[in-house]
Amino acid sequence: MVETKKPTVSVKTVEKNGFHKKIPVKSYVIVLTEIGGTRVKAIRLDEQASMDQAKKTAVADSPGWRFKGLFPLMDRDFEEGERI
Fold this sequence. Notes:
Layout: E1 9-16, E2 19-34, E3 40-48, H1 51-61, E4 65-72
Antiparallel strand pairs: 1-2, 2-3, 2-4
C-alpha cells in the first residue's frame, strides 16, 4: 500500500454569513495519558485552525484520557535526513 503524504500546512475555505474566507490550517500531534491507567497515546490532528482548537478537539474525542502535550507538525518532520 502506498501512503500519500499529507501536508502539515494548508488553506481551508469556510463560509460565514454568506461570505467565503480562506483560513490557514495546520497539523498537530497531541499526547494523552489514560486516566486511572498506565497507557499513553499520541494522535495526529490535521486541518486545525489553532493550537487551542486542536487541544479542544483531542480532549472532546478522547474521553478517559488526559491532555499532556501538543506539538505542531511540519513537513520536514517526515523528510529523509538526520536521525536520532
